[in-house]
Amino acid sequence: MSYLYYPGCSLKGAAIDYDESFRAVASALDIGVEEMKDWECCGATAAKSVDKNASVSLPLGTLKSAEKAGKDLLMLCPSCYTNLMSVKVKAQEDMVFKETHSLNKVPEIKQFLEVLAFDIGPEKLRERIVRSLKGIKVLTYYGCLVARPFRLGGTESHERPMAMERLVEATGAQTVFFPSKVECCGGTLLISREKVALKLCGNILKEAKKLAPDCIVVACPLCHFMLDAKQAAVEKEIGEKIKIPVLYITQLLGLALGIDHKRLGLQRLVTSPKLLLQKIK
Amino acid sequence: MESAVKDDIPQYSLCVQCGRCSSGCPVAFESEDTPRKIIRFLQWGWLKEACESPFLWLCATCQVCKVRCPRGVKIPEIMLALRRTAQQKGWVMAGEKLLFYRTFMEMVKKKGRISELHLGLAAALGKMPSHPIDEALLFLKLLKRGKIR
């Protein structure tokens, strides 16, 4: 298994710990990863809002590079994933579009979560676990774009995806049904409508606290920023202490695979995971 | 409605006004308008009213409406198309987010990528942060953790 890895802007910035833990987990599971050189931003929501041409040409450039390299694309940021998938679907459905942009073989695009949950699968993952997470209670949070509008693995439900639960349970940890798992974290509104963003994030964290988990796991850089880095701001906004560590799914799996804390970027979390880590030892 | 504009806004005529989009919308509580209402404006040919609605810029493009719509209307795409139309026609009511997006795209055009640090600073300078001390503290924490570089 070998992929062309498209990082995107977040994975080189605030989500550097997602990048680190992903690499460590991929290497532990023998997934070949080659980072794309000279990649460009996917356009995020900005291009779609102000510049229609750029919203197509930016993802298209990435698709063409992958086509040239003859490899399938691997991404971690669901926002990048959605933008690339949208253009890919357009190329598949619209022959004129495909021909004008001379795309021949459109590469496969996968989120790393899909590779873990569907290509490797919980059974194979279980064989590699060296440190059981038994006794740890985990809430899985998907947010918006991980599970919609494109189905995870092409099959998962939009409303009740289970991919992360299956992976987490393979480590021996316990998962609890989290009713808010596909609600919006408000991240995209953080700059323009901070109050609304914090309120949406507050709803999720309040629900989470009721279930008293040891940690929440996520698969999106923006969700992670809201739930982890903005947790203190949310606490202030809702007038309630939360104090739940938020890990990337790759960080939690990495712990169970026996990977060193530093290689998983755990020291970079803003909300301290100290209690969780003590429990795992 | 002119055909160029109409072509850019996907299939709003399919909508049967059931309101499922609005009932699942996470930001509808903040707005007088809802996705259903915006689409109704379009069906009536009220393009200006649709473009001027602050709801367009509140939409988080979370895709809930899209996956729940029983008629397959691409509601987030409609909101995005209306954002663009509003700019072309000079009908933009809420400018803050637009400014952010333009800064974002300028950065992408110049460097191919964005720097979260520069983008964050540009946004912070554009308005007074609501909790400047807390935000400065978070900034330092992120810096110390290598999340801002």
Describe the protein's architecture and organization.
The complex is a heterodimer of chains A (281) and B (149). By secondary structure, chain A is α/β, with parallel strands linked by helices. Chain A folds into 2 domains: 110 residues, Glutathione S-transferase Yfyf (Class Pi), Chain A, domain 2, CATH 1.20.1050.140; 151 residues, 3-Layer(aba) Sandwich (Rossmann fold), CATH 3.40.50.11810. Helices cover 48% and strands 10% of the residues of chain A. Chain A is built from 12 helices and 8 strands. Chain A has a 4-stranded parallel sheet with strand order 2-1-3-4, with helices on both faces. Chain A has a 4-stranded parallel sheet with strand order 6-5-7-8, sandwiched between helices. In chain A, helix 1 packs parallel to helix 11 and helix 3 packs across helix 4. Chain A starts with a strand and ends with a helix. The model of chain A has no long low-confidence stretch (mean pLDDT 96). Chain B is mainly alpha-helical and 149 residues long. Chain B folds into 2 domains: 87 residues, Orthogonal Bundle (Fumarate Reductase Iron-sulfur Protein, Chain B, domain 2), CATH 1.10.1060.10; 49 residues, no CATH class. Chain B contains 10 helices and no strands. In chain B, helix 8 packs antiparallel against helix 9. The termini of chain B are far apart. The model of chain B has no long low-confidence stretch (mean pLDDT 90).
Fold topology:
The complex is a heterodimer of chains A (281) and B (149).
Chain A: E1 2-6, H1 16-28, E2 32-35, H2 44-50, H3 52-69, E3 73-75, H4 78-93, H5 95-100, E4 109-111, H6 112-128, E5 137-140, H7 163-170, E6 174-175, H8 194-210, E7 215-218, H9 221-229, H10 231-238, E8 246-248, H11 249-256, H12 274-280
Parallel strand pairs in A: 1-2, 1-3, 3-4, 5-6, 5-7, 7-8
Helix pairs in contact in A: 1-11, 2-3, 3-4, 6-7, 8-10, 9-10
Chain B: H1 3-8, H2 20-24, H3 35-43, H4 47-52, H5 55-58, H6 64-68, H7 75-89, H8 96-111, H9 116-126, H10 132-144
